[in-house]
Design goal:
Blueprint: H1 27-43, H2 51-73
Length: 75
């Protein structure tokens, strides 16, 4: 790095792009998600798990389960 160059600040670019999706959820469902985040943080100390991380993980798990269910019914 040259004398006049400054290091890039912030998070490095990701290889994939992500869309932003806003959804409205009932308060009780948000409470359940927040309780799930709290359990994850208790089980995995030292990791910063956000609500968005938990929602992504729950969506992936739910879609995987649904896809498996659909595959079983089509056999």
């Amino acid at each position: 790095m040259g004398l006049l160059e400054t290091p890039k600040r912030g998070r490095p670019k990701k290889d994939t792009t992500m869309d932003t999706l806003a959804v409205r959820l009932p308060d009780d469902l948000v409470g359940q998600i927040d309780a799930y985040v709290a359990r994850l943080q208790d089980d995995l100390p030292g990791l910063n798990i956000t609500r968005a991380d938990a929602i992504r993980q729950l969506l992936v798990s739910g879609l995987k389960a649904e896809n498996g269910r659909w595959e079983k019914t089509s056999e």
